[in-house]
Write a structure and sequence with these properties.
The chain is built from two helices and twelve strands, in the order H-H-E-E-E-E-E-E-E-E-E-E-E-E. It has about 200 residues and is mostly beta strands. Strand 5 (about 75-80) and strand 6 (about 85-90) form a beta hairpin. The protein is globular, with a radius of gyration of 16 Å. It starts with a helix and ends in a 12-residue tail after the last strand.
């Protein structure tokens, strides 16, 4: 399911997978905001990240257009917003039909993680982990989890889409508004695109 997601959603597929890993450790994380840096074979992108409890919002400018991804673990959904069109897509977490990411609670079932050391990253002392997927074709990942924030401040992955790095800088611990994790009024829901060889919803 994860490989189909990656091929179907491209860059967002990669971000989905990374965020599933983030959510797997963010349950007790503090409210934070940060600059997001993403580097891969798809290019280099900058954006913003907002975390509140188990919910994450990521904002990026891709090809000149702002795109927003909201992960609502409490509702079991992922929303991809397109502000320019005032439209959004919705996927149910763990749904084979909609191909959203697996539930973070299932992460331990699709791979194994190992503590390999401790390092300071972007001002935070972190536990460094190596994560290997049970499916060898999915590759492996290394991530640095801040002991204070209980949240990964950096991730490196070598997977189906090639090597990539996701890093959070200028991290600020401050209250994040609940409104950032809701769909703005006036947005219309659109259907997920159907790819060749796949069944409709």
């Amino acid at each position: 399911m994860i490989k189909r997601l990656l091929s179907r959603l491209g860059l967002f597929g990669v971000i989905f997978l990374i965020t599933v890993m983030l959510l797997s450790v963010s349950g007790n994380a503090a409210d934070i905001t940060a600059d997001m840096i993403h580097k891969s074979s798809m290019g280099s992108f900058k954006g913003k990240m907002f975390l509140k409890g188990d919910n994450i919002r990521q904002e990026m400018n891709i090809s000149g257009e702002k795109q927003i991804t909201i992960f609502r673990k409490d509702k079991g959904v992922v929303w991809v917003l397109m502000p320019g069109q005032k439209m959004y897509m919705e996927m149910m977490a763990g749904s084979q039909k909609n191909m959203a990411p697996v539930d973070p609670d299932e992460l331990e079932k699709i791979g194994k993680k190992k503590l390999i050391g401790n390092e300071k990253v972007n001002g935070y002392m972190c536990s460094k982990y190596h994560y290997t997927f049970n499916d060898p074709s999915m590759g492996a990942a290394t991530y640095w989890i801040s002991e204070k924030l209980n949240f990964p401040v950096k991730m490196e992955m070598d997977g189906p889409s090639g090597p990539m790095v996701m890093e959070y800088r200028n991290i600020q611990e401050k209250t994040v508004s609940d409104s950032l994790f809701n769909i703005p009024s006036g947005y219309q829901k659109m259907s997920m695109p159907i790819m060749p060889g796949m069944k409709g919803q």
